[in-house]
Amino acid sequence: MAERITDIGPPKFDKFLPPVIKENYGKWKYHEILEPGVLVHVSESGAKVFSVRAGSPRLVTTDFVKELCDVADKFCDGYLRFTSRNNVEFLLTDQSKIAGVKDACKKMGVPIGATGHSVSNIVHTQGWVHCHTPAIDASGIVKAVMDDLFEYFGSHKLPAQVRIALACCLNMCGAVHCSDIAILGIHRTPPKVNHDRLRHLCEIPTTIAACPTGAIRPHPDKTLKSVVINEERCMYCGNCYTMCPALPVFDAQKGGVALLVGGKVSNSKTPPMFSKLAVPYLPNNPPRWPEVVQAVRKIINKYAEGANKWERVGEWVERIGWEKFFEVCDIPFTFQHIDDYRWAYDTYRTSMHFKF
Ligand code: SF4
Ligand code: SF4
């Protein structure tokens, strides 16, 4: 038993903690934001740890990571971490070294910010770079949107923090359901069946079983050894394409972008909230996706104008009412906004109370 290998997953987290964090584990009393991008956490013992938070493009090269590590080696005893939104945090115990970290970041072209009432790094999925079912690119749209909102990254001008996320299909490996503004790639056409390839590439029973709505059936012509898709039942999720590469779902012209708003993970003041559909379709328009950039900017502007201090986007929308939100952001209400999911009864508004 002594030689039994049980810990074969990732190394235990505390192996890499900076000594000051290890020594004060569970004893942190409070934290403050000293300036945009710089935090201090104070322990019951009086120990302090300073964090300088910087942006990253998420998909990074090993050279870039090495450069970040050089900065951490020089000023932070070799300690840094990546936040869940892919910001880089340099962790220091010596306040006098903060200026050195900031200068080094500036030289690398890495912005400092993402604390407090700012727009943090946009968390995003793989997009065209890596995944097989995206309806849109991920990094390209995020770059275009963040370029436009960059003034909010290193400042505290907004009423509260705004978390933006992007998922390039509705399988949604981004935090789309729980972000203030979410950009979601949507397919709008059923998969195209390539009968010649399907019989060689795919197992028909597993392909049929992969469809959550039961839209796939064996082809009536048994000699074809293929499938047919009932377009009425298809919800364009792309799950069958994961099982069977002969069912491509991407359509560059018809796929597009939906925007969802009002999600949050935080349980401060109000419970965590799911985001809801705001804009059902915007065109997939590379290389700079101007329609998406403008729509996100408009929602942010109206939020910045209308929200109370500390109010997250979802809390602002709930306070003024969704009808008013659609009106102020000039978003048309369409049939796609009607929730027809079979468990939707739980989320339906069941009173006659409208707020205008
Ligand atoms: S959101 Fe969809 S397309 Fe994008 S990386 Fe995840 S599974 Fe792939
Ligand atoms: S895209 Fe989704 S709903 Fe449509 S056939 Fe494939 S698995 Fe079924």
Automatic annotation (TrEMBL):
Signal peptide: none annotated. It comes from the Bacteria. InterPro entries: 4Fe4S_Fe-S-bd, 4Fe4S_Fe_S_CS, DsrB, NiRdtase/SiRdtase_haem-b_fer, Nit/Sulf_reduc_fer-like_dom_sf, NO2/SO3_Rdtase_4Fe4S_dom, NO2/SO3_Rdtase_4Fe4S_prot, NO2/SO3_Rdtase_4Fe4S_sf. Keywords: 4Fe-4S, Iron, Iron-sulfur, Metal-binding, Oxidoreductase. GO terms for molecular function: 4 iron, 4 sulfur cluster binding; dissimilatory sulfite reductase (NADH) activity; electron transfer activity; heme binding; metal ion binding; sulfite reductase (ferredoxin) activity; sulfite reductase activity. SUPFAM superfamilies: 4Fe-4S ferredoxins, Nitrite and sulphite reductase 4Fe-4S domain-like, Nitrite/Sulfite reductase N-terminal domain-like. GO terms for biological process: sulfate assimilation. The keyword Electron transport does not apply. PROSITE patterns: 4FE4S_FER_1 (PS00198), 4FE4S_FER_2 (PS51379). Residues 225-255 form the 4Fe-4S ferredoxin-type domain. It holds the Pfam family Fer4. GO terms for cellular component: sulfite reductase complex (NADPH). Its cofactor is [4Fe-4S] cluster; siroheme. This is Dissimilatory sulfite reductase beta subunit. It comes from uncultured sulfate-reducing bacterium. The lineage of its organism: Bacteria, environmental samples.
